[in-house]
Amino acid sequence: MTKTDSIGIKPLWRRASFWGPVLFWSWNVIYMFTFLFGFSWTVVLDIITGVREDIIPWIFVFNALLMFIVPAVAMWLALTVFRMRPAALLVFGYGVEGPLMLLLMLRLFAIRQMTPGMLTLLVIAVLGIATLFWKLLDDDLDTRPVGTQALALVGMTLCLCLGLYLGAFLLFYVVPFAAFIVQGIAQFFIHLPEMLRTLTVDDLMDMFGVSLVVIMMISLWAYSATLFIGLPFAMPGLFSYQWWQTLQGFAKRHSWGLGVALSAFAVAIAIGSMVIFNRQPQHVAFELLSEPPTTQAEVAALQAESEVIRTGLLNAYLASNRYFSAVGDVRHIFDMATAPNGLNLTEAAGTRVQTWYEALARPILYEPFEPYTEGLVNEWGMPINRAFQDDPIKAAELYETYFDEPISVAERPAIVEAVKTTWDMRQGEAAWIEVDDREIHLEEQAVTVTEHGDWAEVELYEVYRNNTAIRQEVIYYFSLPESAVITGVWLGNSADRDERFAHRVSP
């Protein structure tokens, strides 16, 4: 073997053909075990029950099933299509399966009612990932007709946009998370000798007594955390390399100018669609209703914008159901940046980081009408999302003033649909009960009439059930004939009148 030959041979641990299968199979095996014996018996069954009882939408069942189908299909492809191409598993895992699983998890646990901006971002992501998957499957893509190659180049450009966007987005979480992990590991080894000295046999028995499912769930979280740290760097790198290969293949057969023009066209489409579909309607509605009309012409002009006003006020009223947070209120980014066990930045630097994040995450953030003001906290001293508190109240007041009807009544179907759009059946049911005014359920009703000649005694017996965890008040309205009189009211927790509560009747 010559010196030149030895230089061209990479060590096994530096080869994609080694790391591709190792990372792919290790994560998928841990994930599938956890899904089948943990996640599927808790979250998925609750989602199916919620859909059957018409509490949450069916799309969440479909999403949850995809979280099993995608890894299952990925492993089948690894055993068949990519069996002789182990290096491709690295691109397939980090470029196709990883982003898909991330989007599915975000859609299931984070995104509630889909907005046009979120839907546009999701469509771009799916098109880009699908193109990369197509490229991995088709080794002869560079020899296809010009139309097919152009379509692949446009799709790979969208994939590149997705990789750059998600990579930048995840950096805001990965960098402080990595700092936290490094400090945590350092603290663990610092205190390890003391922990070993105090460890007893009973502690070891308790550790071995932990169920295998719990151990696998912890392993999945820890292993996914390590892969998550590399995701903001791996995705842009892989997508950039795959896009460059596609552009080179197109330019060799046609021209660099046309290839660059197609890529620029795809970028313009992605950015333009995000700008167009991410316009939030509440600003126009609040602006139109900021001053009452003073002339007949102004009244007519305002009436012509009724649908715009309705859409904008409804979007503000349902802000907490449609957006992650609001511009100016993303305090968790500030907290992670300034945390002592994280990046430990100054407050000024943390504010800048939060501003950068809000500019990048605009498709998932609500844009309040009034500027952000600090100072609102809950009973535990935690900051409250001010826009989600103020704008819905303002929207409800303006809606009733303009349309002469409460928004909770006029827009009841849209509001019920929005509050039910969640993976958590209990949260959806509680919100539906509150919105739909179903806190108190009439379970039983009986009317007894006892005749006494020309008059009669009527007794109304009813049983109510409180559907909430808090005490409720029932206000009872009814009409009586002029000759009728109330002789008594009995309230109690059972049908036994001897256990009834003392009552008072006010004339």
- Strand count: 4
Could you give a short account of the major beta sheet?
Answer: 2 strands, parallel
Question: Which whole number gives the mean pLDDT?
Answer: 82
Portion of residues in helices? 55-70%
Strand order of the largest sheet: 1-2
Contiguous runs where pLDDT drops below 50 for at least 5 residues = 1-8
Rg value: 30 Å
Task: State which percent range the strand residues make up.
Answer: 5-15%
Order of helices and strands: HHHHHHHHHHHHHEHHEHHHHEE
Number of helices: 19
Structural notes for this entry:
- The chain is mainly α and 507 residues long.
- Helix content is 65%, strand content 6%.
- The strands form two sheets. It has a two-stranded parallel sheet with strand order 1-2.
- A hairpin with a 2-residue loop joins strand 3 and strand 4.
- The model is unreliable at 1-8 (pLDDT under 50).
Task: Give the topology, please.
Layout lengths: L2 H5 L8 H37 L6 H21 L8 H22 L6 H22 L8 H53 L2 H8 L3 H42 L2 H22 L4 H7 L7 H9 L1 H12 L1 H4 L2 E2 L4 H8 L8 H14 L4 E2 L19 H18 L3 H4 L1 H9 L4 H11 L4 E13 L2 E12 L41
Parallel strand pairs: 1-2
Antiparallel strand pairs: 3-4
Helix pairs in contact: 2-3, 2-4, 2-8, 3-4, 4-5, 4-8, 5-6, 5-9, 6-8, 6-9, 8-9, 10-12, 12-16, 14-15, 18-19
Short description:
This protein is mainly alpha-helical and 507 residues long.
Key features of this structure:
single chain, 507 residues, mainly alpha, two-stranded parallel sheet, two-stranded antiparallel sheet, 4 strands, 65% helix, globular, disordered N terminus
